[in-house]
Write a structure and sequence with these properties.
The complex is a heterodimer. Chain A is mainly alpha-helical. Chain A is built from 13 helices and no strands. Chain B has one domain: MetI-like (MetI-like fold, Orthogonal Bundle), CATH 1.10.3720. Classes of the chains: A mainly alpha, B mainly alpha.
């Protein structure tokens, strides 16, 4: 890397970075602090910390809505989809990477096309299929959709990774009488851990934050995911500012905490995962 | 023989679950949506083959033709503004942050932060912040002597869409930042060393070394931005409703498709899945054409 000996250039860079930090952080700061203000204080003292922390808005949000359920739903859907993506795409990727057969390349490209083609475009028929399966207004419909949404990138990353795993280990195991299933479970899967982490990380945000499919497929309040429930609440209580800010804070806080805890692995996983894409 | 049979069964058992799910819930729905676009529909069912009637309606009959053109132009504007703002800032930040200075890790962590939030939540947050009743931005602008910029940003057709696109860039900047950083870190260190010895300026370095070597990464970022943007719905929903307020000036394919297909959000016509399917098919064609151009432009030398 080029290094600037000149201190003043470095100072300018720091100032630029700090300014951008303010641009990034201030809206989040504003959201959180406003949630603790009374409706009056929101207008008299909009910018800084509240004069005293007032939890009334949060109490109101929990009075009219069930964020415990919404978080449970988002959690069930995200975790189930990611487990399914990891399981199904590692199975498929193992075959595509290690077995030669007619159509191998075609099936690989067939899956890869899904990276570029948004599943949203099939929404109309997805609604019809979910109706037919009696899965409309059911969390299973979301789990299926998100699994399918994550398969292409999962298969892409994992196939690439498995190809780099040396043949020798598998061959040795095969000579010792290990079956294909045994090789997959005992040799490939343990070596695959970093790639599996990357696949999970690339998929977690689009699934947790998705708004479109819950909006289309979920009706019951007790099945809503966090983004859909927040949108509903926003629509109903738009004029009660303090309460809306409290709801936005509640909805984003767990993800903020989660990100701050694992941000290092998160950014590493994303660079490795999406860089190959 | 036995060996072949064993191989075939393992290939089928391992591949089938992913293949069936992917085909059933992604490939077939998209193909079926194309098929449905040639049908007249009632109550979420296709009832009669009508050929190109849905397309003719979309392209020639008001208000559909106005909405279709409007959605296309708005998507294009959204893509251009978001693409430029997001990628230029991300590139500058990435070039700065790949220097090994103290605390730069911290800045990168912070900058990725908005990308983790849900789009609707960010949309609602800025919706409130830009609300003239609260006047938050207005007061800040007046305080720093930019009082002439005070206006209801989301309430005026001229500024609503650019504003939403800039907020989109605010949220999504983390992705290109990470990709550009990884790309620059992947460039051979000796090249930088040689440039430094030759006394190349930072701007020259960026122009002649970083940008050309980063071309594939920029290509990936652009195509991902394009696809994300041509199916964009959440931002418009949260900041301008499914009607693309004010006066359809922020209406995009996503909201137009939603109104037409599901009829919610105060549309002036009944839900029509045939017409909705035709809109989805047009979106599909646009994306396919652009992906194809991208493959030709950016991936020519690489093996697929």
């Amino acid at each position: 890397m080029l290094k600037f000996k000149n201190i003043s250039v470095r100072t300018i860079l720091y100032i630029f970075l700090l300014m951008h930090t303010v641009v990034v952080i201030y809206p989040i700061f504003l959201m959180t602090t406003t949630a603790f203000k009374t409706n009056k204080e929101i207008f008299t003292n909009p910018y800084g910390f509240p004069s005293k922390f007032n939890y009334g808005n949060f109490v109101k949000v929990f009075d009219v809505s069930r964020y415990d359920l919404y978080f449970r739903n988002s959690f069930i859907v995200t975790v189930s989809s990611i487990v399914l993506i990891l399981f199904l795409s590692s199975l498929a990727a193992y075959i595509l990477a290690k077995y030669k057969f007619i159509g191998n390349k075609f099936i690989y490209l067939y899956f890869l096309a899904g990276i570029m083609i948004p599943i949203k475009l099939g929404t109309i028929n997805i609604v019809q299929i979910m109706n037919w399966l009696h899965l409309f207004d059911n969390l299973f419909s979301l789990i299926i959709i998100y699994t399918v949404m994550g398969l292409p990138i999962g298969i892409f990353i994992l196939t690439d990774f498995i190809k780099m795993i040396s043949e020798e280990l598998s061959n040795a195991a095969r000579i010792d009488g290990c079956s294909d299933y045994g090789i997959f479970l005992r040799i490939i899967i343990p070596l695959l851990k970093p790639a599996l982490a990357a696949v999970a990380i690339v998929n977690i945000l689009p699934i947790w934050n998705d708004f479109w499919f819950p909006l289309i497929l979920i009706r019951s309040d007790n099945l809503k995911t966090v983004p859909l429930a927040t949108a509903t609440l926003f629509g109903q209580y738009e004029t009660q500012w303090g309460m809306v800010f409290a709801a936005l804070t509640i909805a984003s806080l767990p993800l903020i905490i989660f990100y701050l805890i694992i941000s290092k692995q998160f950014i590493k996983g994303l660079s490795e995962g999406s860089f190959k894409g | 023989m036995k060996e072949n049979k064993r191989l075939r069964s393992i290939i089928i058992i391992f591949l089938a679950p992913a293949f069936i799910l992917y085909t059933w819930f992604l490939v077939i729905p998209i193909l079926n949506s194309i098929r449905l676009s040639f049908y007249k529909s009632e109550l979420f069912k296709a009832v009669k083959f009508v050929g190109l009637a849905n397309y003719i309606k979309l392209f020639t009959q008001p208000p559909f033709n106005e909405r279709l053109l409007g959605a296309f132009l708005n998507n294009l504007k959204f893509f251009i503004i978001l693409g430029i703002v997001q990628n230029v800032i991300a590139l500058i930040l990435a070039i700065i942050l790949t220097r090994k200075y103290r605390g730069f890790e911290f800045f990168r962590t912070i900058y990725f932060f908005p990308t983790t939030l849900s789009v609707v939540i960010v949309g609602f947050l800025f919706n409130l912040m830009l609300n003239p009743t609260w006047g938050l931005l207005d007061k800040i602008l007046r305080a720093i002597g930019l009082g002439f910029l005070v206006k209801p940003w989301l309430g005026v057709p001229l500024t609503a869409l650019p504003m939403i696109a800039i907020i989109g860039a605010w949220q999504y900047i983390g992705i290109p930042l990470i990709l550009f950083t990884a790309g620059i870190n992947g460039i051979n260190k000796e090249i930088f060393e040689a440039a430094r010895v030759d006394g190349v300026s930072p701007i020259g370095l960026t122009k002649h070394i970083i940008l050309p070597l980063l071309k594939p990464v920029i290509g990936i970022v652009l195509i991902l931005t394009f696809i994300g943007n041509f199916t964009q719905f959440d931002f418009i929903y949260a900041m301008a409703t499914t009607l693309g307020n004010p006066n359809y000036s922020t209406d995009v394919f996503g909201t137009f498709f939603y109104r037409t297909t599901f009829g919610r959000g105060g549309g002036a016509f009944n839900p029509d899945i045939g017409l909705g399917a035709a809109i989805a098919t047009i979106m599909f064609l646009i994306i396919i054409i652009v992906v194809f151009i991208w493959l030709l432009a950016f991936k020519r030398k690489e093996e697929v």
